[in-house]
Amino acid sequence: MRAELIKRNLKKEFNGWWIISIVGAVVILLPILVIFSSIVQEPNENWLHIRQYLLKNYVTNTILLVVMTAILTAILGVTLAWLIAAYDFPLKRFFRWGLMLPLSIPTFIAAYTYRTMLGYTGVVQSTLRNHFDYQMNPELLTVSGIGGAVFIFTLFLFPYVYMITRAFLENQSTSYIENARLLGRGPFAVFFRIVLPLSRPAIIGGVVLVIYEVLGDYGVTSLLGIHTISTAIFQTWFGMYDVDSAMRLAAWLMVIIVGMFLFERLLRQRRRYHVSNKSRPLVPVKLTGMAGIAAFMYCGIVFLIGFLIPFVQLIAWAKMTFHKVWDTSFFTLLYQTVYVAVISTMIILILAVVVANVCRSHSSLSFILSKCVTSGYSIPGPIIAIGVLAMFIALDKWLAPLYSSMGLGKAPLILSLSLVMLIVGYCIRFMATGFNAIEVGFEKVGTKYTEASRMLGLGKTRTFFKVDLPLIKGSIISGFILTFVEICKELPLALLLRPFNFETLATKTYQYANDEQIHEASISSLLIIAISIVSVIIIQMIGKKVKQ
User: Given the DSSP bridges, would you call strands 87-88 and 285-286 parallel, antiparallel or unpaired?
Assistant: First the structure.
């Protein structure tokens, strides 16, 4: 009886919540479909030139970067996660959260910092020459090319693998590891024969996030002079002013992403992984003597190189240029960043709340809807930017008669040159961040209060505002902050979709670095890092709440 009453109420209100959710999903998927439609269009001369002379190099460099970074981040992230989860050594509690801090430094900021520090005129080589009278080959420490990019990506993206794998090992692998130890297996045998096979889903989950970041990167590859598909999209767009060829390059990048996804599925085949919800936390083994010192040194070196050294260097540069950069124009820059981030975040959370509430029904349609809405996070920023631009240009052409009747010209580009385009790009890219936070909140609350409200005769909308909204308020706040931080850090989307004379902290930092004004870039970089550290703290808080 109760189920029938709830189903009748759902059918009555289908046209409200569901229509908003479906429209949102269509808007998110439309740029992706536009990208794939470019494959069947007639190619122009620029594309024929790119395909014949340049495409092979772009694809080769992209795959090389992805494979090398994936392997190294997996090694670094998994070994650190295993040390923190399974052993006790000096300063372990500090390193447990400190090893997440490299993620707070955007990779393009890390790239220009290390490139300058380790260059011929940088602090390292200058100190060796002036204070120790040691002359060395300048190329030995130069951060450039694919090797330099892999170094940066590995050091500042490994926390993705580290966090996911550590959480899995601490909570889900206890019985297997303890049984192996009781059977006399040594630490290496336990690690290679138990931990690695058991943690494969967690490791792959972290590595996939790293791959998405590498494929969508523009800052590191452009600063270090590497020709990848992402940099080619920018060069084709801004250099040749050829949107059609840029769309084809974006389609190629999507092919690589889909190919890697299918390859992982092929490797997995029919394997299934199941863990018990009743698993108790792993009891760490205390390391003494040289083993404890070695563990401390390993974690300490990664923390120093991955966070502390570049952070201190940025502070030193900021002191040198504070009086020059910190003026009224900088406050305008800060206002523009906060303004566009707040508007985008509010739109994201409103749609995320609607879709997450609809998806509580756990039907096949709601499952598909949730996957469509969150698909933007797995797509690199340049691809989304190209799709959004093509969509808005088509929309402006469709609205041309209206513009003409308003006296704006025969075929003006109104929406394509506005802030609306950038906001839509942000919403597509970061919808998953807000949606996942709201979904977790709904899962924690459950459905008993909602069902009780519906049984008392309240509709879906009134139930949401009177019952559900107060219960998920914490999740909404967390989702807002996390999404806001991600938008402030985003570089490729902002570079490609921003209106003329509109800068954010990320674009201004990149502009300074690209113009070799390294010291001037430090203040905006520190602000981005400060905002990012808030994200790390929130992740920690969410993790503690989940455990409780």
Answer: parallel
- Mean pLDDT check: name the lowest of 197-206, 330-339, 435-444, 445-454: 445-454
Residue 87, beta-bridge partner list: 285
> What is the C-alpha to C-alpha distance for residues 295 and 92, in angstroms, rounded to an integer?
9
DSSP 321-347: HHHHH-SHHHHHHHHHHHHHHHHHHHH
Nearest to 218 by CA among 525, 510, 449, 475: 510
Nearest one of 451, 284, 283, 278 to 361, comparing CA atoms: 451
Q: b/e string for 86-110 if b means 16 or more Cβ within 10 A?
A: bbbbeebeebbebbbbbbbbbbbbb
**What phi, psi does 275 have (nearest 5°)?**
-130, 155
Residue among 148, 157, 302 nearest 215 (CA): 157
Residue 285's beta-bridge partner residues?
87
Tell me the chain's radius of gyration from C-alpha atoms. Answer: 25
> Is-contact 368 21, C-beta < 8 A?
no
Q: Is the pLDDT of residue 409 over 80?
A: no
Give the per-residue pLDDT at 172: 62
Beta-carbon contacts of residue 85 (< 8 Å; ≥ 6 apart): 166, 169, 170, 282, 284
- Residue from 212, 197, 228, 199 nearest 260 by CA: 212
User: Residue 350: pLDDT above 70?
Assistant: yes
Q: pTM for the whole thing?
A: 0.84
Q: Please name which of 201, 208, 200, 211 lies closest in space to residue 64, comparing C-alpha atoms.
A: 211
How far from 36 is each of 32, 244, 253, CA to CA, in Å? 7, 11, 11
Which two three-digit tokens encode residue 140? 């030995």
CB atoms within 10 A of CB 85: 23
Tokens of 83: 């040390």
Give the C-alpha separation, 312 to 123, whole Å.
12
pLDDT band at 276 (very low <50, low <70, confident <90, very high): low
Residue that the structure tokens 């455990």 belong to: 547
- Distance (Å, whole) CA 281 – CA 173: 8
Q: Does the pLDDT value for residue 354 go beyond 60? A: yes
| CA-to-CA dists, residue 241 to 107, 237, 365, angstroms | 27, 5, 40
